[in-house]
Fold this sequence. Notes:
The chain is α/β, with parallel strands linked by helices. It has helices at residues 3-31, 65-74, 98-111, 122-127, 129-138, 173-177, 196-201, and strands spanning 34-42, 53-57, 83-86, 116-118, 142-143, 147-153, 156-162, 186-189, 206-209, 218-219, 223-224, 237-241, 244-248, 266-274, 286-287. Strands 5-4-3-2-14-1-15 form a 7-stranded mixed beta sheet, covered by helices on one side. The protein has a 6-stranded mixed beta sheet with strand order 6-7-8-9-13-12. Strands 10-11 form a two-stranded antiparallel ribbon. β3, α3 and β4 form a beta-alpha-beta unit.
Amino acid sequence: MSFGSRSRALLGAAVIGGIGLAVNARWRATAAFAVARWDVPLAPRHHGLDGLRIAFLTDTHVRSAGDVVSVRRSLAAVAGCDLLLLGGDFVSEAARYMRPLLDTLEPVIAATPLGACAVVGNHDFTVGVDRVAADLTACGVIVLRDGNVELRWRGNSFWVAGMDESLLAVSDPNLAMNAIPSGAWTVALWHEPDHAELAAEAGASLQLSGHTHGGQVRLPWLGPLAVPEGGKRYVDGWHCVHGMPLYVSRGLGTYRPPVRFRCAPEITVFTLRAASFPPCAGARAVPSSRG
Ligand SMILES: [Fe+2]
């Protein structure tokens, strides 16, 4: 092979490899979601909640029929869960995408014993937060905007507190949690993870967040290419914040550019477990062995 033909062959291989990577990042990597399952330890005073299963879905960013298909497939993980929590950024570009999303969510919410609670995200503000919240409420979802709700499971109370979105609104964790009895087990939903200290100080037992998408594109050795404001300190996974476990999901959808690389979409299932050690933190939360 001559030098010229060898160069053309190398260039061709590079182009084909680049196209393959791009196709994989755009379609395959955005559709191949993971079901992350975690056991979360409970302090002794909350052992009555042992076995409670909570599914967490966030950042669906629905804007196409293909996105709805991904959501529908992921919802198989909610089967057997007692409660579904939704972390915001439901749609992108336009609120009209709420309809196909809710058509998919509604039967799952109806089949979930404790139903669903939600907070809103920054993209929900962009497309019209009042419309998004109204659509969710009409579907039976409890929308928490600096508010909380008491739920009962096997005779035990626990609370879900939802902080309002913190980039385009004003979040007030104290307002969200001030009516909750001191020491009650409380899961805080907050779209952005970076102010978790405030939730911990307000008394939350666990915070669940999304917003970052895990960075979407994670380069070897370098990590995420870019993360948004409000998600720069806690990008994904478990963290211990002032004694409170914080979990940041990579979310299910994407935003511009609509690609993922080494950062699979996810839906998360938490099972609360009686434990003899303190509930914090991620290092203590262990992957669940059950499928
Ligand atoms: Fe998002």
